[in-house]
Amino acid sequence: MLKILVSASLSSFFFGLFGGGWDSVDQKIDSEYPRVNFISTDQLRINQQSESPFLHVFDVRESEEFAVSHLSGALNYSESSSIAGMVTNKNTAIVVYCSVGYRSAAVADELATLGFTNVRNLKHSIFEWAEKGYPLVNSKGVVQSVHPYNPAWGALIDESLHQYPQ
């Protein structure tokens, strides 16, 4: 059900995004998912560098996007029910991300509906992470590219960062 709702919303989202940039993305997420909390890319990076990181990080993008690159230590689960099945303590600190934060906001909202109390969406998600030059990995090691998802969202990041599956 969640995938159907997100797919329908994505269609209208793409039409509204052209020319709007990050402000349009932020407004769309804030209006559709007002109860979702966020963590900045800088805050997550600091947490990852600490001696005792306290967050479970989930990449909710499709597997082909995840294969191009992802945050080190992130697990790839695109459904809130899969995350809920893996994380049994509903007070566990969870961060979800996608390309820009829209799909992950939907998952964060659904996790809140399921009773999870400490879920945060990575603001501007992997795109901002890549733009800041923070490390990304794939099965071959460290990379500095990201799957652009589609032309509308890909326009939000420098084209030199774009990478499609090979």
Describe what this molecule looks like in 3D.
The protein is an alpha/beta fold. About 45% of the residues lie in helices and about 15% in strands. It is built from 8 helices and 7 strands; from the N terminus they run ααβαβαβαβαβαββα. It has helices at about 1-15, 20-30, 40-50, 65-70, 80-85, 100-115, 125-130, 150-155, and strands at about 35-40, 55-60, 75, 95, 120, 135-140, 140-145. The strands form 2 sheets. Strands 1-5-4-2-3 form a 5-stranded parallel β-sheet. A two-stranded antiparallel ribbon has the order 6-7. Helix 5 (about 80-85) packs across helix 6 (about 100-115).
Number of strands: 7
- The 3D shape can be described as globular
What number of structural domains do the residues give? 1
Gyration radius, in Å: 15 Å
CATH homologous superfamily placement: Rhodanese-like domain
CATH fold call: Oxidized Rhodanese, domain 1
Strand content: 5-15%
Quickly give the structural class: alpha/beta
Q: How are helices and strands ordered from N to C?
A: HHEHEHEHEHEHEEH
Helix content: 40-55%
Task: Write out the strand line-up for the largest beta sheet, numbering strands in chain order.
Answer: 1-5-4-2-3
Individual helix count: 8
CATH architecture: 3-Layer(aba) Sandwich
CATH class (first level) name: Alpha Beta
Q: Which regions have little confidence, pLDDT < 50, spanning 5+ residues?
A: none
Task: Look at the structure and give the mean pLDDT.
Answer: 90
Largest sheet: 5 strands, parallel
Through-space gap between termini:
31 Å
